Amino acid sequence: MMSEQKCSLWTDIETACLGRSSAPWAATGVSIDSRSIVPGDLFVALRGPDFDGHDFVGQAAAAGAAAVMVANDNKDSVNVPIPTIFLDDTLDGLEGLARLARARSNAQIIGITGSVGKTGTKEALRLALAANGTVYATEGNLNNHLGLPLSLARLPRNTDFGIFEMGMSARGEISHLSSITRPHTALITLVSEVHSEFFKNLNEITEAKAEIFEGLEKSGIAILNRDHGQFEVLSYHASRYGVTRALSFGEHVKADARLLNCNLGESFSIIEADICGHHLSYQINAAGKHQAINSLGVLAAVHAIGASLELAAASLRDFKAMKGRGERRKIIGKDGTFEIIDESYNSSPASMIAAIKVLASARPLGRGKRVAVIGDMLELGSRSKDLHASLAEPILSSGIDLVFTAGTQAVALWDRLPSTVRGGHAFNASELKHLVLEAIGDGDIALVKGSHGSRMTEIVNALDALDGVVEDSEF
Question: What is the mean pLDDT of residues 44-61?
Answer without folding.
Answer: 93
